[in-house]
Amino acid sequence: MQHAFFDRIHLRIIDVLQRDRSYAGSLGHVIRSPSTHIRSFLYAYEGKGTMELGGISYPLSAGCVFHFPMNQSLLINSSPEQPLCYFTVRMDYKFIEWEGTAIRSVEPDDRVLPFDFVVPMPDQETMFGEMQRLHSLWHSKQPGYEWGTKLAFMNILQRVSEQQLLQEEHNVMAQLILKCKDYIRNHYHEPLERETLARKASLSTSYFSVMFKKHTGYSPVQYITKIRLDKAKLLLRQKHLTIADVAREVGFRDPLYFAKVFSHEIGVPPREYRNM
To answer: How confident is the model over 198-208, as pLDDT tens digits?
Structure first.
């Protein structure tokens, strides 16, 4: 779901903090909240401990990213001998979705970010440097610091997201979905049905749909439509092709239906898009 997340997110940074050994000691090496009230992203650069989120325990160590959503019971234990030191980004966000030229705001679900609650990041030196620069930028309060901090943080989220994808390469289900995405990109001009794609993945149609959305952020139909319309926008630049030609080239049998879908998703009819 990484791409769908980044396509839709509208982010607000609330604060960027650095917590060192003295902070852990001042709290008795324990952070406890019966119900979290803010979304937080953290990067541990030293020490070790555990995070218990919603009754599930996760080990923490230097070099890992961890995060938690709102309205969850939270317990973070830091080792007294090797206290956790970390950067914290407190934030909130909404999803922005376009339907043609109309826009709507969507509340995110309980899962905060498009990766696991704890993700080990192998390049600790780079991550520490990026988090340090993020912290410095936020506290500089120079003109444009808020936008600059959001941009830098989005780049960090993308780095973590890419690391998650690398970890998922060994996941059988992730591989099946990747193959289905490749098939769609190579056969978008042909009739594509959920049942056919599910059979190729050796899954039931309903389970395939659930897994496809979990891994891509789109339903199979939404993803097929997205690929077809992206191709259609390129073909519309070729003036010698009629609208009906373009519709057939990208897998729509009915040019009128193609025009309707295109107008709904892009916000303008195909003919008007061609002349823009």
So the answer is: 998 888 999 99
